[in-house]
Amino acid sequence: MVTAMEKVNHIPAKANMSVDELVQAMLKAGVLGAGRLGRAAGIVRRMFDDSDYFTFLSMSGPMVPGGLRELICHLVDIGHIDAIVTSGANIVHDLLEAYGGAHYRVPTEKNDQELREAGMGRIADLFVYEKDFEVFEKQIYGFLDGLPKDKMTTLSPSEFIKELGMTLTDDKSIIRQAAIKGVPIFSPGLMDSMLGFHMYTYSTTKAFTMDFVKDLRILGSIIKESKKTAAIMLGGGLTKHFTMGSTILRGGLDLAVQITLDRPEAGSLSGAPLKEGVSWQKVQADANYETVIGDATIVFPLLILGALS
User: What one-character DSSP code corresponds to residue 73?
Assistant: First the structure.
């Protein structure tokens, strides 16, 4: 027997519609990308409203250069994010701005050779000045020189980032805000960044090393003590796997949302549907999860503003 079917409710052409109203209209439409975004916002709202959830935010790709810095900082500030897992690059670009630098839109008339000659490094349609990286390098070397001797060989990446965050004065810095709020920032690929490169060059002249295994012990303790776990994952790769993999200790995530542009056909984790994680015990069998296919710099602000309203 055919059961009663829900019809698609079309998104109204309403002037001055709020973000929340738009996301709710997408939920009522219920299909394709609009439906996925509407359902994802509902899942994120559950993460934010229930204090039993330990909520991760993982970030791959240029999320800080791409304009999400202040939004992420705000989520940390108001207590909706309990831990961050990020690429080393996002840490570098947060620090770049904290030290007075900025990100700029690429002049359309310039090609890459002209950008190189002008001391600019390009990321898609934005760029940074080499001079800002020079300031960054000096600041990092100064920070390393100021570390107590007993911490030069004992810190994990998350502890190192916290120490670094406590030296910053920029209130819009994700790293500073996380340090103040006690939100750990894990970066399993920290060495694959300009920060990692400067740590390497520093270690060639002075005793300095980092304990990456220690972060797994720290993360393991967090997972074991958490009643429920949740994650918002921007992009895939190492940060997505590190986030999901850590929750194996308690059978996987209870709530999960991923925003990705990657496809599943090649078998990569970045494009893998979240339901695949059930077989690996990275997602609970009865978990509530949603994948939104799209550019995180578009989808994430809609998702968060819709969930916060």
Answer: H
Of the candidates 70, 27, 24, 78, the residue with the CA atom closest to the CA atom of residue 48: 78
Enumerate the active-site residues.
282
How many Å apart are CA 155 and CA 186, to the nearest integer? 12
How far is it, in rounded angstroms, from Cα 9 to Cα 111?
A: 46
The CA–CA distances, whole Å, from 128 to 112, 115, 116, 176 equal 13, 10, 11, 21
Distance of CA 278 to the CA centre of its chain: 22
User: Which parts of the chain register pLDDT below 50?
Assistant: none
Q: Residues 141-173: pLDDT tens digits?
A: 999 999 999 999 999 999 999 999 999 999 999
63 in Cβ contact with 296 (< 8 Å): yes
Query: In angstroms, rounded to a whole number, what is the distance separating the alpha carbons of residues 305 and 41?
Result: 9
Residue closest to 54 by CA, chosen among 256, 231, 291: 231
Strands 120-123, 126-129: pairing is antiparallel
Q: Which residues contact 279 (CB under 8 A, 6 or more apart)?
A: none
Q: Are 11 and 34 in contact (CB under 8 A)?
A: yes
Q: What is the DSSP string of 182-218?
A: T--EE-TTTTSSHHHHHHHHHHTTS-----HHHHHHH
- Distance in angstroms (rounded) separating the CA atoms of residues 157 and 213: 9
Q: What is the DSSP letter of 246?
A: H
- Alpha carbon distance 303, 305 (integer Å): 6
Q: Which residue has the tokens 């052409």?
A: 13
Q: How far apart (Å, rounded) are the C-alpha atoms in residues 54 and 47?
A: 8
Full-model pTM: 0.92
Q: Is 233 exposed, middle or buried (0-12, 13-18, 19+ CB in 10 A)?
A: buried
Q: How many CB atoms lie within 10 A of CB 294?
A: 17
Tens-place pLDDT, residues 79-125:
999 999 999 999 999 999 999 999 988 877 778 888 888 888 888 88
